[in-house]
């Protein structure tokens, strides 16, 4: 698969390196060619401008800072029907609340001709760099939100390539909930809490409780 990565930061490096290892044709695009080229050399990808990476990828990963995401996309000529993975979170770190509007909504409004899929936003770059992970015999689940089934399945293929399990979490309007979950999780982690303890297995959490009890 041809993947164009827009950005050359930590998420671009972690996911890009994994996808190169899996045999995908990855191009790193950046506003500063030297930074994109440096990352590409380190992970075995090719590099170019943001527009060149956009044209290269049949699937795109948006991995620029959240505050630059919409303006970046508006500056690019993206072919209609292209799949775009949004892994961004726009979080107010003073109170760990969700900025408005939610990123997936803003991105979809900016490029309505593109199939946006929210994914990879619930874990830091180190998690993806060190994938796969095994939790008591279960693979790490990666929630996906998107309105186009074919685009969601495309991203699911990339998730499975990391040794993780794609979990369909609903249409794109539900991506706001993934972003809010990230805000809560980061706030808990920053306060010294264990986020994993918030999500026990379904049987333990609901097995003895019925709605209305």
From TrEMBL:
SUPFAM superfamilies: NAD(P)-binding Rossmann-fold domains
Highest taxon of source: Bacteria
A Pfam cross-reference name: F420_oxidored
Domain Pyrroline-5-carboxylate reductase catalytic N-terminal: 2-89
Matches recorded under InterPro entries: NAD(P)-bd_dom_sf, P5C_Rdtase_cat_N, STEAP_metalloreductase
Keyword Oxidoreductase listed: yes
Molecular function (Gene Ontology), one example: oxidoreductase activity
Organism: Kribbella steppae
Keyword Iron part of the UniProt annotation: no
Protein's name according to its UniProt entry: Pyrroline-5-carboxylate reductase catalytic N-terminal domain-containing protein
UniProt keyword terms in alphabetical order: Oxidoreductase
């Amino acid at each position: 698969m041809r993947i164009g990565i827009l950005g050359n930061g930590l998420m671009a490096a972690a996911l890009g390196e994994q996808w190169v290892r899996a045999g995908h044709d990855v191009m790193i695009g950046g506003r500063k060619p030297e930074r994109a080229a440096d990352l590409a050399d380190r992970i075995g990808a090719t590099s170019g401008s943001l527009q060149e990476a956009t044209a290269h990828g049949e699937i795109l990963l948006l991995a620029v800072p959240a505050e630059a995401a919409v303006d970046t996309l508006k500056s690019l000529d993206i072919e209609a029907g292209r799949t775009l993975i949004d892994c961004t979170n726009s979080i107010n770190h003073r109170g760990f609340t969700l900025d408005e509007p939610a990123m997936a909504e803003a991105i979809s409004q900016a490029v309505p001709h593109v199939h946006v899929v929210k994914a990879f936003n619930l874990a830091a770059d180190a998690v993806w760099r060190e994938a796969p992970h095994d939790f008591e015999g279960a693979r790490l689940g990666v929630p996906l939100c998107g309105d186009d089934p074919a685009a969601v399945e495309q991203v699911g293929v990339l998730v499975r390539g990391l040794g993780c399990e794609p979990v369909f979490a609903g249409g794109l309007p539900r991506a706001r909930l993934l972003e809010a979950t990230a805000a809560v999780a980061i706030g808990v982690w920053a306060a010294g809490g264990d986020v994993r303890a918030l999500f026990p297995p379904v049987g333990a959490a609901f097995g003895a409780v019925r709605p209305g009890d």
